[in-house]
Amino acid sequence: MLTLTLKPHEERRIKEGHLWVYKDELAHAPAAEPGTLVRVCAQDGASLGTGFYNPLSKIAVRMLACEVELAETEFFTKRIRQAQALRDRMLPQEEGYRVVFGEADLLSGLIVDKYNNYLVLQMLSAGMDSRKPHIIEALREIFPDVTGIIEKNTAQTRKKEGLELIDAVVWGSVPDVVRFRENGLDLEINLATGQKTGYFLDQKINRRVVGSLSRGKTVLDCFCNIGGFALNAALGGAAEAVGVDSSALAVEAATRNAEINNLANCRFEKANVFDLLREHVQQERKWDIIVLDPPSFAKSRSAIRSAQAGYAELNRTAMKLLPPGGLLVSASCTQLVPEHDLLDIIYRESARIRKRLRLVHRGSQAADHPVLLAMPETQYLKFLVFEVAGNP
Ligand code: SAH
Protein backbone atom coordinates (compact mmCIF):
# COMPACT_ATOMS: atom_id res chain seq x y z
CA MET A 1 0.00 0.00 0.00
CA LEU A 2 1.22 3.50 -0.85
CA THR A 3 2.37 5.40 2.27
CA LEU A 4 2.02 9.17 2.58
CA THR A 5 3.93 11.06 5.25
CA LEU A 6 2.74 14.23 6.93
CA LYS A 7 4.89 17.30 7.44
CA PRO A 8 6.23 17.66 10.99
CA HIS A 9 3.58 18.47 13.66
CA GLU A 10 0.62 17.98 11.31
CA GLU A 11 -0.62 14.73 12.90
CA ARG A 12 -2.52 16.14 15.88
CA ARG A 13 -5.90 16.76 14.22
CA ILE A 14 -5.87 13.30 12.64
CA LYS A 15 -4.87 11.64 15.92
CA GLU A 16 -7.80 13.41 17.57
CA GLY A 17 -10.22 11.94 15.06
CA HIS A 18 -10.53 14.47 12.25
CA LEU A 19 -10.85 12.64 8.93
CA TRP A 20 -9.38 15.10 6.42
CA VAL A 21 -5.71 15.45 5.55
CA TYR A 22 -5.17 18.60 3.51
CA LYS A 23 -2.79 18.47 0.58
CA ASP A 24 -0.49 21.10 2.09
CA GLU A 25 -0.10 18.95 5.23
CA LEU A 26 1.58 16.19 3.23
CA ALA A 27 5.38 16.12 3.06
CA HIS A 28 5.04 14.91 -0.51
CA ALA A 29 1.95 14.36 -2.68
CA PRO A 30 2.86 11.69 -5.22
CA ALA A 31 0.89 11.03 -8.39
CA ALA A 32 -1.65 8.24 -7.96
CA GLU A 33 -5.05 7.18 -9.28
CA PRO A 34 -7.72 9.33 -7.54
CA GLY A 35 -9.33 7.23 -4.81
CA THR A 36 -6.32 5.00 -4.10
CA LEU A 37 -6.27 3.42 -0.63
CA VAL A 38 -3.19 4.72 1.21
CA ARG A 39 -1.57 4.60 4.62
CA VAL A 40 -0.90 7.93 6.33
CA CYS A 41 2.07 8.26 8.67
CA ALA A 42 3.35 10.98 10.95
CA GLN A 43 6.83 12.37 10.29
CA ASP A 44 8.29 9.85 12.78
CA GLY A 45 6.84 6.96 10.74
CA ALA A 46 3.99 6.09 13.15
CA SER A 47 0.88 5.01 11.24
CA LEU A 48 -2.20 7.21 11.64
CA GLY A 49 -4.46 4.84 9.69
CA THR A 50 -5.64 4.39 6.12
CA GLY A 51 -7.75 6.51 3.81
CA PHE A 52 -8.69 7.38 0.24
CA TYR A 53 -6.17 9.58 -1.53
CA ASN A 54 -6.98 12.07 -4.26
CA PRO A 55 -4.00 14.08 -5.50
CA LEU A 56 -6.41 16.38 -7.40
CA SER A 57 -8.26 17.52 -4.29
CA LYS A 58 -7.35 20.03 -1.56
CA ILE A 59 -8.64 17.37 0.85
CA ALA A 60 -5.90 14.97 -0.18
CA VAL A 61 -6.79 12.04 2.08
CA ARG A 62 -10.14 11.12 3.57
CA MET A 63 -9.34 8.84 6.49
CA LEU A 64 -11.37 5.71 7.09
CA ALA A 65 -10.95 5.86 10.87
CA CYS A 66 -9.29 2.47 11.22
CA GLU A 67 -6.83 0.20 9.46
CA VAL A 68 -8.55 -0.93 6.27
CA GLU A 69 -6.76 -3.47 4.06
CA LEU A 70 -9.43 -3.69 1.42
CA ALA A 71 -12.22 -1.12 1.03
CA GLU A 72 -14.67 -3.32 -0.82
CA THR A 73 -18.16 -4.74 -0.29
CA GLU A 74 -17.44 -6.31 3.10
CA PHE A 75 -16.04 -3.07 4.48
CA PHE A 76 -19.03 -1.04 3.25
CA THR A 77 -21.54 -3.62 4.46
CA LYS A 78 -20.09 -3.48 7.94
CA ARG A 79 -19.92 0.27 8.17
CA ILE A 80 -23.31 0.99 6.58
CA ARG A 81 -24.88 -1.55 8.96
CA GLN A 82 -23.41 0.42 11.85
CA ALA A 83 -24.90 3.60 10.42
CA GLN A 84 -28.28 1.90 10.00
CA ALA A 85 -28.14 0.63 13.61
CA LEU A 86 -27.90 4.23 14.82
CA ARG A 87 -30.99 5.18 12.78
CA ASP A 88 -32.86 2.14 14.11
CA ARG A 89 -32.06 3.32 17.61
CA MET A 90 -32.70 7.06 17.19
CA LEU A 91 -35.34 7.30 14.44
CA PRO A 92 -37.01 3.90 14.19
CA GLN A 93 -39.84 3.29 11.70
CA GLU A 94 -39.06 6.27 9.50
CA GLU A 95 -39.80 5.86 5.80
CA GLY A 96 -37.56 8.74 4.76
CA TYR A 97 -34.19 9.22 6.43
CA ARG A 98 -30.46 9.64 5.83
CA VAL A 99 -28.80 6.22 6.10
CA VAL A 100 -25.25 7.53 5.73
CA PHE A 101 -24.13 11.07 6.57
CA GLY A 102 -20.56 11.10 5.24
CA GLU A 103 -17.90 11.91 7.80
CA ALA A 104 -20.28 11.55 10.76
CA ASP A 105 -20.73 7.89 9.79
CA LEU A 106 -17.00 7.51 9.16
CA LEU A 107 -17.62 7.32 5.42
CA SER A 108 -16.19 10.62 4.23
CA GLY A 109 -17.71 11.63 0.91
CA LEU A 110 -20.69 9.28 0.92
CA ILE A 111 -24.34 10.26 1.41
CA VAL A 112 -27.17 7.72 1.24
CA ASP A 113 -30.81 8.74 1.68
CA LYS A 114 -33.69 6.27 1.84
CA TYR A 115 -37.17 7.16 0.66
CA ASN A 116 -39.31 4.11 1.21
CA ASN A 117 -38.04 1.44 -1.23
CA TYR A 118 -35.57 3.70 -3.02
CA LEU A 119 -32.07 4.83 -2.20
CA VAL A 120 -30.43 8.01 -3.39
CA LEU A 121 -26.61 8.14 -3.42
CA GLN A 122 -24.18 11.03 -3.49
CA MET A 123 -20.48 10.40 -3.82
CA LEU A 124 -18.55 13.56 -3.07
CA SER A 125 -15.05 12.08 -3.17
CA ALA A 126 -13.02 10.09 -5.70
CA GLY A 127 -12.54 7.32 -3.13
CA MET A 128 -16.28 6.76 -2.79
CA ASP A 129 -16.98 7.36 -6.46
CA SER A 130 -14.55 4.67 -7.57
CA ARG A 131 -16.11 2.16 -5.16
CA LYS A 132 -19.65 2.60 -6.43
CA PRO A 133 -20.17 -1.10 -7.32
CA HIS A 134 -19.12 -2.19 -3.82
CA ILE A 135 -21.36 0.39 -2.18
CA ILE A 136 -24.34 -0.70 -4.29
CA GLU A 137 -23.71 -4.36 -3.49
CA ALA A 138 -23.49 -3.58 0.23
CA LEU A 139 -26.72 -1.56 0.13
CA ARG A 140 -28.58 -4.32 -1.69
CA GLU A 141 -27.51 -6.79 0.96
CA ILE A 142 -28.50 -4.54 3.87
CA PHE A 143 -31.82 -3.38 2.39
CA PRO A 144 -33.66 -6.30 0.76
CA ASP A 145 -36.78 -4.09 0.54
CA VAL A 146 -35.06 -1.65 -1.84
CA THR A 147 -36.14 -1.93 -5.47
CA GLY A 148 -34.12 0.86 -7.02
CA ILE A 149 -30.99 2.94 -6.42
CA ILE A 150 -30.25 6.27 -8.08
CA GLU A 151 -27.12 8.43 -7.95
CA LYS A 152 -27.78 12.16 -7.72
CA ASN A 153 -24.20 13.16 -8.18
CA THR A 154 -25.01 16.71 -9.16
CA ALA A 155 -23.24 18.59 -6.34
CA GLN A 156 -20.77 21.15 -7.68
CA THR A 157 -18.24 20.08 -5.01
CA ARG A 158 -17.59 16.96 -7.11
CA LYS A 159 -15.64 19.16 -9.51
CA LYS A 160 -13.10 19.86 -6.76
CA GLU A 161 -12.43 16.11 -6.74
CA GLY A 162 -12.09 15.97 -10.52
CA LEU A 163 -15.42 14.14 -10.78
CA GLU A 164 -18.14 14.62 -13.39
CA LEU A 165 -21.72 15.45 -12.52
CA ILE A 166 -24.01 12.44 -13.05
CA ASP A 167 -27.68 11.77 -12.39
CA ALA A 168 -28.60 8.16 -13.19
CA VAL A 169 -30.34 5.06 -11.98
CA VAL A 170 -27.56 2.65 -10.97
CA TRP A 171 -29.61 -0.39 -9.98
CA GLY A 172 -33.19 -1.63 -10.34
CA SER A 173 -35.73 0.94 -11.38
CA VAL A 174 -36.60 4.26 -9.81
CA PRO A 175 -39.71 6.26 -10.76
CA ASP A 176 -39.40 10.04 -11.03
CA VAL A 177 -41.91 10.52 -8.23
CA VAL A 178 -41.68 8.64 -4.93
CA ARG A 179 -43.81 8.78 -1.80
CA PHE A 180 -43.00 8.34 1.86
CA ARG A 181 -44.52 9.27 5.20
CA GLU A 182 -43.05 11.84 7.52
CA ASN A 183 -44.61 13.23 10.71
CA GLY A 184 -48.00 11.80 9.73
CA LEU A 185 -47.96 13.32 6.24
CA ASP A 186 -47.78 11.52 2.91
CA LEU A 187 -45.07 13.33 0.99
CA GLU A 188 -44.43 13.10 -2.71
CA ILE A 189 -41.02 14.13 -3.99
CA ASN A 190 -39.60 14.26 -7.48
CA LEU A 191 -36.24 12.53 -7.71
CA ALA A 192 -35.74 13.72 -11.28
CA THR A 193 -36.26 17.44 -10.70
CA GLY A 194 -36.02 17.89 -6.91
CA GLN A 195 -33.16 19.70 -5.16
CA LYS A 196 -30.33 17.81 -3.41
CA THR A 197 -31.42 14.18 -2.94
CA GLY A 198 -35.08 15.18 -3.34
CA TYR A 199 -35.91 16.40 0.17
CA PHE A 200 -34.39 18.09 3.20
CA LEU A 201 -34.52 15.30 5.76
CA ASP A 202 -32.48 17.14 8.38
CA GLN A 203 -35.44 19.30 9.52
CA LYS A 204 -37.73 16.35 10.33
CA ILE A 205 -37.87 16.92 14.10
CA ASN A 206 -37.94 20.71 13.77
CA ARG A 207 -40.97 20.45 11.48
CA ARG A 208 -42.73 18.53 14.24
CA VAL A 209 -41.97 21.36 16.63
CA VAL A 210 -43.58 23.89 14.28
CA GLY A 211 -46.56 21.55 13.78
CA SER A 212 -47.08 21.39 17.53
CA LEU A 213 -47.08 25.19 17.89
CA SER A 214 -49.45 25.98 15.03
CA ARG A 215 -53.00 25.23 16.23
CA GLY A 216 -55.22 28.18 15.36
CA LYS A 217 -52.26 30.27 14.16
CA THR A 218 -51.38 31.97 10.88
CA VAL A 219 -48.04 30.58 9.68
CA LEU A 220 -45.74 31.87 6.94
CA ASP A 221 -43.19 29.27 5.80
CA CYS A 222 -40.39 31.08 3.97
CA PHE A 223 -38.20 28.93 1.67
CA CYS A 224 -40.76 26.12 1.86
CA ASN A 225 -39.35 23.83 -0.86
CA ILE A 226 -41.88 20.97 -1.19
CA GLY A 227 -43.87 22.34 1.75
CA GLY A 228 -42.20 20.81 4.83
CA PHE A 229 -42.94 23.34 7.58
CA ALA A 230 -46.22 24.67 6.14
CA LEU A 231 -47.65 21.15 5.73
CA ASN A 232 -46.73 20.28 9.32
CA ALA A 233 -48.32 23.53 10.49
CA ALA A 234 -51.48 22.80 8.50
CA LEU A 235 -51.67 19.27 9.88
CA GLY A 236 -51.16 20.76 13.34
CA GLY A 237 -54.33 22.81 12.91
CA ALA A 238 -53.04 26.16 11.65
CA ALA A 239 -55.75 28.70 10.79
CA GLU A 240 -53.78 29.38 7.63
CA ALA A 241 -50.36 28.18 6.48
CA VAL A 242 -48.68 29.80 3.49
CA GLY A 243 -45.44 28.51 1.99
CA VAL A 244 -43.20 30.59 -0.26
CA ASP A 245 -40.39 29.46 -2.53
CA SER A 246 -38.68 30.93 -5.59
CA SER A 247 -38.71 27.58 -7.39
CA ALA A 248 -41.83 26.96 -9.47
CA LEU A 249 -41.20 23.21 -9.29
CA ALA A 250 -41.00 23.33 -5.50
CA VAL A 251 -44.26 25.31 -5.26
CA GLU A 252 -45.96 22.85 -7.61
CA ALA A 253 -44.78 19.89 -5.50
CA ALA A 254 -45.83 21.60 -2.27
CA THR A 255 -49.30 22.31 -3.66
CA ARG A 256 -49.63 18.68 -4.68
CA ASN A 257 -48.59 17.56 -1.19
CA ALA A 258 -51.28 19.74 0.38
CA GLU A 259 -53.84 18.06 -1.93
CA ILE A 260 -52.61 14.54 -1.17
CA ASN A 261 -53.04 15.21 2.54
CA ASN A 262 -56.41 17.02 2.14
CA LEU A 263 -55.06 20.13 3.81
CA ALA A 264 -57.32 22.98 2.76
CA ASN A 265 -55.76 25.38 5.29
CA CYS A 266 -52.53 25.49 3.34
CA ARG A 267 -51.39 27.18 0.12
CA PHE A 268 -48.16 27.94 -1.67
CA GLU A 269 -46.86 30.74 -3.81
CA LYS A 270 -43.80 31.40 -5.93
CA ALA A 271 -41.91 34.48 -4.78
CA ASN A 272 -38.55 35.78 -3.68
CA VAL A 273 -38.77 35.72 0.12
CA PHE A 274 -36.74 38.91 0.53
CA ASP A 275 -39.17 40.84 -1.71
CA LEU A 276 -42.26 39.23 -0.23
CA LEU A 277 -41.31 40.05 3.37
CA ARG A 278 -40.65 43.68 2.41
CA GLU A 279 -44.06 43.88 0.71
CA HIS A 280 -45.75 42.48 3.78
CA VAL A 281 -44.04 45.12 5.92
CA GLN A 282 -45.38 47.82 3.58
CA GLN A 283 -48.84 46.30 3.74
CA GLU A 284 -48.54 46.09 7.56
CA ARG A 285 -49.43 42.40 7.47
CA LYS A 286 -49.05 40.30 10.59
CA TRP A 287 -48.33 36.62 11.06
CA ASP A 288 -48.42 34.57 14.27
CA ILE A 289 -45.49 32.38 13.22
CA ILE A 290 -42.83 32.98 10.57
CA VAL A 291 -40.41 30.21 9.59
CA LEU A 292 -37.15 31.15 7.87
CA ASP A 293 -35.26 28.21 6.37
CA PRO A 294 -33.07 29.68 3.64
CA PRO A 295 -30.49 27.77 1.62
CA SER A 296 -26.85 27.98 2.69
CA PHE A 297 -25.65 31.57 2.26
CA ALA A 298 -21.89 30.82 2.36
CA LYS A 299 -19.97 27.86 1.02
CA SER A 300 -16.59 29.51 1.57
CA ARG A 301 -15.04 31.85 4.12
CA SER A 302 -15.02 34.74 1.66
CA ALA A 303 -18.83 34.71 1.66
CA ILE A 304 -19.33 34.80 5.44
CA ARG A 305 -19.91 38.56 5.64
CA SER A 306 -22.57 38.61 2.98
CA ALA A 307 -24.19 35.57 4.63
CA GLN A 308 -24.35 37.45 7.93
CA ALA A 309 -25.90 40.42 6.14
CA GLY A 310 -28.46 38.08 4.56
CA TYR A 311 -29.48 36.63 7.93
CA ALA A 312 -29.68 40.13 9.42
CA GLU A 313 -32.02 41.38 6.72
CA LEU A 314 -34.23 38.29 6.68
CA ASN A 315 -34.67 38.08 10.43
CA ARG A 316 -35.15 41.83 10.87
CA THR A 317 -37.83 41.99 8.19
CA ALA A 318 -39.61 38.91 9.54
CA MET A 319 -39.64 40.33 13.09
CA LYS A 320 -41.47 43.41 11.84
CA LEU A 321 -44.37 41.19 10.80
CA LEU A 322 -44.74 39.52 14.21
CA PRO A 323 -47.07 40.92 16.90
CA PRO A 324 -46.34 40.43 20.61
CA GLY A 325 -46.64 36.71 21.30
CA GLY A 326 -45.61 35.92 17.73
CA LEU A 327 -42.93 33.33 17.02
CA LEU A 328 -39.85 33.77 14.88
CA VAL A 329 -38.55 30.37 13.77
CA SER A 330 -35.10 30.97 12.37
CA ALA A 331 -33.07 28.18 10.81
CA SER A 332 -29.67 28.34 9.18
CA CYS A 333 -27.79 25.58 7.41
CA THR A 334 -24.66 27.66 6.76
CA GLN A 335 -21.94 25.66 8.50
CA LEU A 336 -19.63 28.69 8.50
CA VAL A 337 -22.09 30.74 10.59
CA PRO A 338 -22.18 29.07 14.03
CA GLU A 339 -25.12 29.31 16.42
CA HIS A 340 -23.62 32.01 18.63
CA ASP A 341 -23.06 34.23 15.58
CA LEU A 342 -26.63 33.73 14.41
CA LEU A 343 -27.94 34.52 17.90
CA ASP A 344 -25.81 37.63 17.97
CA ILE A 345 -27.09 38.77 14.57
CA ILE A 346 -30.71 38.22 15.57
CA TYR A 347 -30.20 39.98 18.90
CA ARG A 348 -28.61 43.02 17.21
CA GLU A 349 -31.38 43.28 14.63
CA SER A 350 -34.09 42.94 17.29
CA ALA A 351 -32.46 45.68 19.36
CA ARG A 352 -32.28 47.93 16.27
CA ILE A 353 -36.02 47.80 15.79
CA ARG A 354 -36.84 47.70 19.51
CA LYS A 355 -38.29 44.21 19.63
CA ARG A 356 -37.71 42.09 22.71
CA LEU A 357 -37.11 38.46 21.78
CA ARG A 358 -37.01 35.47 24.08
CA LEU A 359 -35.30 32.30 22.91
CA VAL A 360 -37.80 29.55 23.73
CA HIS A 361 -36.46 26.56 21.82
CA ARG A 362 -33.30 25.53 20.04
CA GLY A 363 -32.81 22.52 17.82
CA SER A 364 -30.38 21.22 15.27
CA GLN A 365 -30.13 18.55 12.59
CA ALA A 366 -32.05 15.29 13.19
CA ALA A 367 -30.19 12.24 14.54
CA ASP A 368 -29.81 10.76 11.05
CA HIS A 369 -27.37 13.66 10.49
CA PRO A 370 -25.18 13.05 13.52
CA VAL A 371 -22.36 15.37 14.51
CA LEU A 372 -18.89 13.86 14.75
CA LEU A 373 -17.30 15.88 17.55
CA ALA A 374 -13.85 15.68 15.99
CA MET A 375 -15.21 17.39 12.87
CA PRO A 376 -17.02 20.69 13.43
CA GLU A 377 -17.76 20.55 9.69
CA THR A 378 -20.46 17.96 10.42
CA GLN A 379 -22.44 20.40 12.60
CA TYR A 380 -24.28 22.84 10.38
CA LEU A 381 -27.98 23.20 11.16
CA LYS A 382 -29.22 25.81 13.60
CA PHE A 383 -32.90 25.99 14.55
CA LEU A 384 -33.97 28.76 16.90
CA VAL A 385 -37.47 29.67 18.06
CA PHE A 386 -38.03 33.11 19.58
CA GLU A 387 -41.14 34.61 21.10
CA VAL A 388 -41.74 38.30 20.64
CA ALA A 389 -42.35 39.65 24.13
CA GLY A 390 -45.24 42.04 24.69
CA ASN A 391 -44.62 45.72 25.51
CA PRO A 392 -44.45 46.24 29.29
N1 SAH B 1 -37.87 24.47 4.38
C1 SAH B 1 -37.62 23.43 3.41
C2 SAH B 1 -36.19 23.40 2.91
C3 SAH B 1 -35.66 24.71 2.39
S1 SAH B 1 -34.35 24.55 1.26
C4 SAH B 1 -38.06 22.09 3.98
O1 SAH B 1 -38.54 22.02 5.11
O2 SAH B 1 -37.92 21.09 3.28
C5 SAH B 1 -34.22 26.17 0.64
C6 SAH B 1 -35.28 26.56 -0.38
O3 SAH B 1 -35.14 27.96 -0.63
C7 SAH B 1 -35.18 25.90 -1.74
O4 SAH B 1 -36.38 25.25 -2.01
C8 SAH B 1 -34.96 27.06 -2.73
O5 SAH B 1 -35.69 26.89 -3.95
C9 SAH B 1 -35.50 28.23 -1.97
N2 SAH B 1 -34.96 29.57 -2.26
C10 SAH B 1 -33.67 29.94 -2.44
N3 SAH B 1 -33.58 31.29 -2.54
C11 SAH B 1 -34.83 31.78 -2.40
C12 SAH B 1 -35.39 33.10 -2.38
N4 SAH B 1 -34.63 34.20 -2.50
N5 SAH B 1 -36.73 33.22 -2.19
C13 SAH B 1 -37.52 32.14 -2.05
N6 SAH B 1 -37.03 30.87 -2.05
C14 SAH B 1 -35.72 30.70 -2.22
Report on the structure:
The chain is an alpha/beta fold and 392 residues long. It has 3 domains: 2-63, PUA domain (Archaeosine Trna-guanine Transglycosylase, Chain: A, domain 4, Roll); 73-174, RNA methyltransferase domain (HRMD) like (Transcription Regulator spoIIAA), CATH 3.30.750; 188-390, Vaccinia Virus protein VP39 (Rossmann fold, 3-Layer(aba) Sandwich), CATH 3.40.50.150. Helices cover 28% and strands 28% of the residues. It has helices at residues 12-15, 73-90, 126-129, 132-142, 204-213, 228-235, 248-260, 273-282, 304-320, 339-352, and strands at 2-5, 20-22, 36-41, 47-53, 59-63, 96-101, 110-115, 118-123, 148-153, 166-172, 177-182, 185-190, 218-222, 240-245, 266-270, 289-292, 327-332, 357-363, 382-388. Strands 15-14-13-16-17-19-18 form a 7-stranded mixed β-sheet, sandwiched between helices. A 5-stranded mixed β-sheet has the order 1-3-4-5-2. β13, α6 (228-235) and β14 (240-245) form a beta-alpha-beta unit. α2 (73-90) packs across α4 (132-142), α5 runs parallel beside α6 (228-235) and α9 packs across α10 (339-352). The model has no long low-confidence stretch (mean pLDDT 97). S-adenosyl-L-homocysteine is lined by residues 195, 200, 203, 223-225, 228-229, 244-247, 250, 272-274, 293-295.
